[in-house]
Write a structure and sequence with these properties.
It is a single chain. The protein is built from twelve helices and four strands; from the N terminus they run H-H-H-H-E-H-E-H-H-H-H-E-H-E-H-H. It is an all-alpha fold. The chain is about 80% helix and about 0% strand.
């Protein structure tokens, strides 16, 4: 147990250092090629921090352990929203750009629903993986094309103090720093996963629960580190883009690459009945918050972290066959239902502004 704890702590320290390298390197590279911070987070940083998930899922699939493989992906996506975004928002409100509200968040929800549909028959086949990879290519291509055609000015307020564009020497240094960070994150995350998995297994927790909790948090540690560091540096746009982009990459890239190169991966009934719907609900939970406030506030971030604590407690208690599991699960679900109901209201009333008493205001013809 002692060696496992030391392995976990050493891995976490390594993630702090390599996470900082990824944020610094990716920001410089993005500025050099003319991409805004949000697109950097949705592509370069997201791909780099998805390396631990890819390594863990690939190894678990090779070992014939679908519980760890799929549990790691689904649990990581839940942790990225509730834990990563929640922790960043707990330090201060996170503004949500208009483009994020209209494009990235819906894509994350759509990818979550699509994964559930593909897995609903109890198996993720190779053709399902190919579908996910096609979705990834379409997502990245649309983001790049949209940025080149419209630029930030068409969606967001211009930056009053833009960062200077780095020269070739700075860019080369940033590429090296980013490469070291990506490799370091993958290595450090393996230490985190190994140490945390040994601790959990010594407590008698089932492997599916290990995948949904310990492996999920371990592989999400790069997202946690890079997002918190970005937030402290005043780059909360990278923090949000990193979390959303990582979720899209986990489903479309990690799961797509592994399932398209391996034989059919069985999906546990528990994932279909509980965890995949939770993943969809957590993704949808961001929509009403983003549309109503155009930001995730501090108290909403704290609520996210609390919901994740309740979900994790339910998984552990249920894995240990504890009678308190249904109670904890029911309380956590009850806390999620109201904002999800608000999601439906927001989506169904978009484009239908109402007055103070719920009456639609009359349109006023503006002079040309």
């Amino acid at each position: 147990m002692t060696s496992a704890v030391l392995t976990l702590v050493g891995g976490l320290l390594g993630l702090v250092l390599t996470g900082s390298a990824i944020v610094s390197g990716a920001s410089t590279i993005g500025l050099r090629i003319g991409l805004p911070p949000l697109v950097v987070g949705l592509t370069i940083v997201a791909a780099g921090t998805s390396a631990p998930e890819l390594a863990v899922v690939w190894r678990a699939a090779d070992a014939g352990d679908p519980g760890l493989a799929l549990g790691s992906v689904v649990g990581s996506n839940i942790a990225n929203v509730l834990l990563v975004v929640g922790l960043v928002a707990a330090f201060g409100a996170i503004p949500i750009a208009r483009r994020t509200r209209r494009i990235e968040l819906p894509v994350m929800v759509a990818a979550s629903i699509g994964t559930f549909v593909l897995a609903a028959d109890g198996t993720i086949e190779r053709r399902d993986g190919a579908i996910l990879l096609v979705g990834l290519v379409a997502f990245i291509a649309s983001m790049v094309l949209m940025q080149r055609r419209t630029g930030d000015a068409a969606h967001d307020e211009p930056d009053p103090d833009p960062d200077p564009r780095p020269d070739a020497r700075d860019t080369l240094r940033a590429v090296g720093l980013f490469a070291i960070g990506v490799v370091g994150v993958a290595v450090a995350a393996q230490f985190v996963v190994t140490g945390a998995e040994d601790i959990a297994l010594s407590l008698g927790v089932p492997q599916l629960v290990v995948g949904l909790t310990v492996l999920a948090v371990g592989t999400s540690a790069p997202e946690i580190v890079t997002s918190v560091i970005a937030a402290f540096r005043g780059r909360s746009d990278i923090a949000v883009g990193n979390a959303i982009g990582s979720n899209v990459f986990n489903l479309l890239f990690v799961l797509g690459a592994v399932s398209s190169t391996h034989s059919d991966i069985p999906v546990a009934d528990e994932l279909i009945r509980v965890d995949l719907p939770v993943m969809i609900g957590v993704a949808a939970l961001c929509i009403p918050i983003a549309f109503t406030n155009a930001a995730i506030t501090r108290w909403e971030g704290i609520t996210f972290v609390g919901l994740y604590a309740g979900y994790t407690a339910y998984l552990v208690l249920d894995g240990l066959d504890n009678s308190a599991a249904p109670i904890v699960g029911g309380v956590t679900l009850a806390a999620v239902v109201p904002p999800l109901a608000w999601t439906v209201r927001v989506l169904t009333t978009r484009g239908k502004p109402t007055g103070r008493r719920g009456v639609a205001p009359r349109s006023v013809e503006r002079p040309s």
